Amino acid sequence: MPGSSDAGKLVTRHADHAILHGITRSVVLDAVKEQNIAVEQRAFTLDEAYKAREAFITSASQIVLPVIRINGRAVGDGKPGPIAIALREVFHRYAEAG
Question: Which pTM was predicted?
Answer without folding.
Answer: 0.82
